[in-house]
Amino acid sequence: MSEATKKLENLQAHTQNILNKANEVIIGKEEEIRLCMISILAKGHVLLEGAPGLGKTSLIKTLAKLLGLKNNRIQFTNDMLPADILGSNIYNKSLAKFEFHPGPIFAHFVLADEINRATPKTQSACLQAMEEHRVNMDGFMHELPLPFFLFATQNPSDNVGTFPLPESQLDRFLMRIEMKTPSREAEKKILKGEDRNLMIEKLNPLISSDELKNLQDSIERIHVSDMILDYLLDLVSQSRTLAEGLSPRASQDFLKAAKANAFIDGRDFVIPEDLQRVGVAVMNHRLGKKNSSDLIGDQDLALQIIESTTVA
How many domains does the chain have? Predict the structure, then answer.
């Protein structure tokens, strides 16, 4: 066995340890946890959607603790302003100058809780941070700490007091993951087990920030054949036929997520099943209705695209 193979297997074992520990805390959410980990490996942001009380916040806090990253939580409300997220310049009398006081977005792992309860103006404060990992305030550029992940939770759009996320922001989320009601067996384990918040507090980091960077760098080295690229482009083309379709940014995210899935499965190359497994989560929030400005989070349409596209 070569040294490179040993190193790859060691990194894959680290990832599996994180998944296993997260599944001990968050019961019955194996696929959701896996998709979140794929997004982290692919350096992407995640939108978690579901009714209150389904474990969205607990899942995010668990991953942040296991990865050993500084995390901040922003509770979005309808009276919040962009400065409450980004920070502001405050005049220092003793120095006779303005000083920048960073907001809660300056962290490695940011939980944007109930992001769609804020107005579109406040939601848009996250756009530059998500795309460029920095923010511009009063003509000065402020770099965010790396790695930087924004994990947002969203309540269903028919809930009272919610505002739809703009298309430009939705496209910056690598995945939209729907949190569903746990099975009866899983809920029974939750009821019999320890309080989730106490379990999360007791968690210790399983990897360092350098090890996380090594994991992310390993994703870049996953091999992708021309056949896989053609299949991906066929999926993208089909999405543009059946709906408004995926942007070039989305197709890049699609490929990164497929590479991360291959890595978790212990391979150093991508197969069609990798694209199929991550496809719904990558596509469903980016599919707009033809001839309409309304966006839909349509899992059925995403599945239709995958099922109607064959591998050459």
Answer: 2
The range of the structural domain enclosing residue 237 comes to 223-312
Determine phi and psi for 177, rounding to 5 degrees.
-115, 125
| Residues 241 and 159 both lie in one domain | no
Residues 167, 265 within the same domain: no
Query: Token digits for 164?
Result: 């739809």
Instruction: Kindly state whether residues 129 and 88 are assigned to the same domain.
Output: yes
| Chosen domain end from 167, 198, 221 | 221
Shared domain for 66 and 121, answered yes or no, is yes
- Each residue's pLDDT tens digit in the chain (312 positions)? 566 667 677 778 889 999 999 999 999 899 999 999 999 999 999 998 877 788 888 898 899 999 988 888 999 988 888 889 998 888 888 877 888 888 899 999 899 988 988 888 888 888 889 999 998 887 788 899 888 999 998 876 666 667 888 888 888 999 999 888 888 998 898 888 888 888 998 999 998 888 888 889 999 999 999 999 999 999 999 999 887 788 999 999 999 999 999 999 999 999 999 999 999 999 988 886 544 444 444 788 888 899 988 887
Inter-residue contact 50 to 180 (CB < 8 Å): yes
Same domain assignment for residues 82 and 62: yes
